[in-house]
Design a protein that fits this description.
By secondary structure, the chain is an alpha/beta fold. It has one domain: TIM Barrel, CATH 3.20.20.70. Strands 6-5-4-3-2-1-8-9-10 form a nine-stranded mixed beta sheet, sandwiched between helices. The longest helix is centred in the middle third of the chain and has 20 residues. The radius of gyration is 19 Å and the shape is globular. It starts with a helix and ends with a helix. The relative contact order is 0.13.
Length: 331
């Protein structure tokens, strides 16, 4: 693990003089999903999916270029019949491989994907909150997925979308989530609701949208809980402050040190910049990455992008917190 970490730091510094390296790739291996969450619209999108061999080609190209961290996400990645084969192939190439899932299918699929370093499993609150957001019965199935992964000895990060439903009654839903995470030996992360090209027409999102005051109060509460429960919440303080204050990034590292790979092989800086995507199947995946434009004065409220920018901007507090997290995940 020492060499990848050294290379990551080296390329982070070299990025200051224009050098690019796709240190982290998030692969949206499908937009298909078995749930239809009220705040998400990606499950409505239709996108041709690369074949198994095409995905392997992409992974191999990125590995040669220095990718350290590969994440499978969707949609619901467990809907791909070849997901186990892809996970195993990725594990032979990258130091860190993770899989983001709603957890509903994980109990039945766990043996196919057990070689990931960790799972990120979506859970928005106790049963009444999660089932409202994600669909009836989704809470029990996701919780069983969490328990199954933990019984297999796998690390789990529970990711929750912060909404009106889990901040009401003095953050009752968030408190119950934190207890679920603690009781099951999981870490927690949080995502603030945002609008993108997939969900901007969803009327359901208006019913659970947070006011600025609610967002700030929720993030302040999470920050206090984080201090009180050391190591439980994987959400660095600089990232929390960025999202709380809606700060712009003078330099965004999307397309510079991280990118997204869409189901059809398009390489994009991030999901908000899908129109800037370049066809990796046609031009080569790393060539496509290298052609992506650089962004300045960029703003978004996405937790993942803000956390990555905190890390790649070499914020010492984010570096320290994330180093501890990733060391725990790499076994």
């Amino acid at each position: 693990m020492k060499k990848p970490m050294i290379n990551s730091l080296l390329f982070t510094y070299l990025s200051r003089v224009g050098v690019k390296c796709p240190l982290r790739v998030t692969h949206f291996c499908t937009f298909r999903c078995n749930l239809s969450c009220s705040y998400c619209g990606i499950w409505k999108a239709r996108k041709k999916e690369m074949t198994t061999e095409q995905v392997k080609r992409a992974m191999k190209e990125f590995a040669v270029a220095g990718t350290v961290f590969w994440t499978f996400t969707g949609g619901e990645p467990l809907l791909r019949k070849d997901i186990g084969e892809l996970v195993n192939y990725a594990k032979g190439l990258f130091p860190i491989v993770s899989l983001t899932t709603n957890g509903v299918l994980l109990k039945d699929k766990i043996n196919e994907v057990k070689n990931v370093n960790y799972f990120t499993i979506s859970l928005d609150g106790p049963k009444e909150v999660n089932d409202y957001n994600r669909g009836k019965g989704s809470f029990e199935k996701a919780l069983e997925g969490i328990k199954t992964a933990r019984r297999k000895g796998k690390d789990v990060v529970i990711n929750a979308v912060i909404s009106k439903l889990n901040v009401k009654n003095d953050f009752e839903g968030i408190k119950k989530l934190i207890k679920i995470a603690s009781d099951n030996g999981c870490r927690m992360n949080f995502t603030v609701l945002y609008r993108d090209q997939f969900n901007r027409n969803n009327k359901g999102i208006n019913n659970i949208w947070l006011s600025d005051k609610e967002r700030i109060n929720a993030l302040n509460f999470i920050k206090k809980e984080k201090k009180r429960r050391f190591g439980l919440i994987s959400f660095s303080n600089p990232c929390i402050e960025r999202i709380k204050n809606l700060e712009k990034w003078k330099i965004c590292y999307s397309g510079k040190l991280f990118c997204e790979l869409l189901p059809d092989g398009t390489v994009v800086p991030c999901l908000f910049k899908e129109k800037e995507g370049i066809d990796g199947l046609k031009y080569g995946f790393v060539n496509a990455f290298n052609k992506l434009p650089i962004h300045e004065d960029c703003f978004c409220i996405n937790t993942c992008y803000n956390e990555l920018n905190c890390i790649f901007s070499l914020n010492p507090k984010s570096l320290a917190e994330n180093l501890l997290k990733y060391v725990a995940f790499v076994k």
